């Protein structure tokens, strides 16, 4: 009888312990993670591959003893995504934001950086590129309006071919239409691994505006959670490296490019670089406006044509002759009459971001812009 009572008490104790554990698990708050549903190699809401950020979030959740739940939101406009998710208490962590202190979002704090992302050189394995000068006399593929495009467009002696999609660039490489490419490293590395059988060597690029570190964003009100995630990231460095290799992120020693400060997908803000006065010009005023200092200083039409065809021809056609009427720059004078030069100047300097045209005022000197305008003057009909 005593044995029976002991057994019965043991069963009851086990039952209540199990019930308490189940209640604890049921009441434990999940780790709600905001991520892009269609942004491999970073994140994907379905399919066999989840992306580095999603797999890392799962590892963090395991470390914290928290079930990970996802809030999916497209991140084409990152700040809009933040406003509609984590800043409305829609999630607890956002993988990932630029770790740079200059990238501030009110109401959020950030963990330590856990990964460095950058643009990369995509080239044949046997081609040696040690710096920007080695790209001279090479046909360089770039994506339109990206920092590599802007950098090379602001320099002399580089032949660029601009494209709108990464797939077009790999196709041009495969057909021998270009020699090398400068692309966003994680995306290029992933495609090279998954679609190109690692045919190309993908090497990170280092230079101002070409990349940066990323961190996890957490609401300021959840400082304790931020500290716990921070500790988990520190403990998971080996696993993060393994995930980087799994998704093809470039991991070799970077090639240093002397880039100007230009926007990257991680930072999104341009900083004007100081430049020396072009020949025949002088600088005036705090705004740094260049004025003609010599009456006989004439714009270089050949230089303008070269800059235009290396930078603008993807959208506006070779020598401005686009088959799309609104992009045909031979009709500027017909459209804008005597104001066409002022209109073209304003457009070149300020761009038309909503239509996909970047701002060039921080990339080209006044002399270069004047040479482009002079060239455009020769093609008006």
Describe this structure in words.
There is one protein chain. By secondary structure, the protein is an alpha/beta fold. The protein folds into three domains: 28-116 and 213-246, Periplasmic binding protein-like II (D-Maltodextrin-Binding Protein, domain 2, 3-Layer(aba) Sandwich); 117-210, D-Maltodextrin-Binding Protein, domain 2; 281-377, Cytochrome c-like domain (Cytochrome Bc1 Complex, Chain D, domain 2, Orthogonal Bundle). It is built from 13 helices and 15 strands. The chain has helices at residues 2-27, 52-64, 78-84, 147-153, 166-174, 185-194, 223-235, 237-246, 301-311, 313-316, 332-336, 340-350, 366-377, and strands at 31-35, 38-39, 43-44, 68-72, 93-98, 108-110, 115-123, 139-143, 159-163, 180-184, 201-206, 211-219, 255-256, 281-284, 289-292. Strands 1, 4, 5, 6, 7, 8, 9, 10, 11, 12 and 13 form an eleven-stranded mixed sheet that branches. A hairpin with a 3-residue loop joins strand 2 and strand 3 (43-44). Helix 2 (52-64) crosses helix 7 (223-235), helix 9 (301-311) crosses helix 13 and helix 12 (340-350) crosses helix 13. The relative contact order is 0.12.
């Amino acid at each position: 009888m005593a044995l029976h009572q002991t057994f019965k008490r043991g069963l009851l104790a086990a039952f209540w312990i199990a019930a308490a554990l189940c209640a604890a698990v049921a009441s434990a708050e999940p780790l709600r993670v905001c991520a892009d549903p269609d942004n491999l190699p970073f994140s994907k809401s379905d399919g066999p591959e989840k992306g580095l950020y999603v797999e890392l979030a799962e590892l963090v959740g395991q470390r914290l003893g928290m079930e990970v739940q996802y809030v999916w939101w497209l991140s084409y406009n990152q700040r809009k995504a933040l406003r509609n998710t984590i800043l409305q208490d829609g999630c607890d962590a956002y993988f990932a934001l630029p770790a740079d202190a200059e990238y501030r979002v009110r109401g959020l704090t950030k963990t330590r950086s856990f990964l460095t992302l950058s643009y990369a050189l995509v080239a044949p394995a046997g081609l040696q590129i040690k710096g920007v000068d080695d790209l001279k006399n090479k046909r360089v593929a770039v994506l339109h309006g990206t920092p590599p495009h802007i950098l090379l467009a602001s320099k002399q002696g580089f032949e660029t071919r601009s494209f709108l999609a990464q797939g077009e660039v790999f196709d041009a490489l495969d057909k021998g239409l270009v020699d090398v490419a400068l692309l966003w490293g994680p995306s290029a590395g992933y495609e090279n691994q998954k679609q190109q059988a690692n045919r190309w060597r993908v090497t990170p690029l280092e230079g101002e505006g070409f990349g940066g570190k990323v961190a996890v964003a957490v609401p300021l009100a959840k400082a304790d959670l931020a500290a716990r995630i921070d500790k988990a990231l520190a403990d998971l460095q080996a696993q993060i490296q393994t995930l980087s290799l799994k998704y093809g992120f470039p991991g070799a020693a970077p090639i240093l490019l002397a880039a100007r400060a230009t926007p990257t997908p991680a930072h999104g803000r341009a900083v004007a670089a100081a430049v020396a006065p072009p020949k025949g010009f002088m600088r005036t005023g705090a705004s740094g406006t260049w004025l003609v200092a010599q009456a006989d200083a004439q714009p270089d039409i050949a230089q303008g044509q070269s800059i235009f065809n290396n930078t603008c021809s993807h959208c506006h056609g070779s020598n401005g002759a686009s088959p799309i009427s609104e992009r045909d720059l031979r009709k500027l004078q017909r459209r804008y009459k005597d104001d066409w030069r002022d209109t073209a100047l304003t457009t070149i300097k300020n761009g038309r971001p909503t239509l996909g045209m970047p701002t060039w005022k921080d990339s080209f000197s006044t002399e270069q812009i004047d040479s482009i305008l002079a060239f455009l003057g020769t093609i008006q009909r």
